[in-house]
Every structure is written in structure tokens, then in C-alpha cells.
Amino acid sequence: MAMKKxxxxxxxxxxxxxxxxxxxxxxxxxxxxxxxCAQAGLALKTFARWRGIFARETPPIAKSANPFVPxxxxxxxxxxxxxxxxxxxRLRGVQAERIVARVLARL
Length: 107
Description:
The protein is an alpha+beta fold. It starts with 11 loop residues before the first helix and ends with a helix. The protein is elongated. Helix content is 48%, strand content 14%. The longest helix has 18 residues. It is built from four helices and three strands, in the order H-H-H-E-E-E-H. It has a three-stranded antiparallel sheet with strand order 1-2-3, covered by helices on one side.
């Protein structure tokens, strides 16, 4: 069942805040845009427009700012190989897995 159409603020800053909050509510709702808009009484086209506005304003995360690094782990037990950005590290011995676990915990 659709809700009554919301009264949108006239003030530009308040309108932007309304849409930021609305988009955040949609993201956490688990519903499709169409379902969310129908239930909230919002025009899907307007919803999509505001989504686009905020998407263009949000700068993409730089690769160097990403705290996660791609790792490929091969081997188990006494020999372990890690490859990262073309660098390959091979660990041998009983403590190899423990060393890698400690290093990964600090990333």
C-alpha cells in the first residue's frame, strides 16, 4: 500500500538533507527502488535523479586509499607463498602460517 506523497522542503539545504536521508533509508531497506518509492509515495524518476546527483558529487575512492590489498595464498603447512603486486614472498617452516596471520591482522 502506497503512503501519502511526502511534503518536500522548499529550502535547498533541507531538500538535499531529505533526499540524503531518503536514499540512506532505501539502501538499508532491502527493497528495490520501485518498491521503496511506491511505498514512500515518491516519484521513481525524481528518486533516480537525486541518486545520480549524489553519486556524481561523491568522489570515487582512490586505489591507494583502499585499506584492502589483493593477496593470493598458496600452500598449507610448512610452505606458504604470497603474491602481491608482482612481488612474491615464499615462507617455509613450521611458523609460516602463523607469520602470515600476524601480518594480515595488521593490514
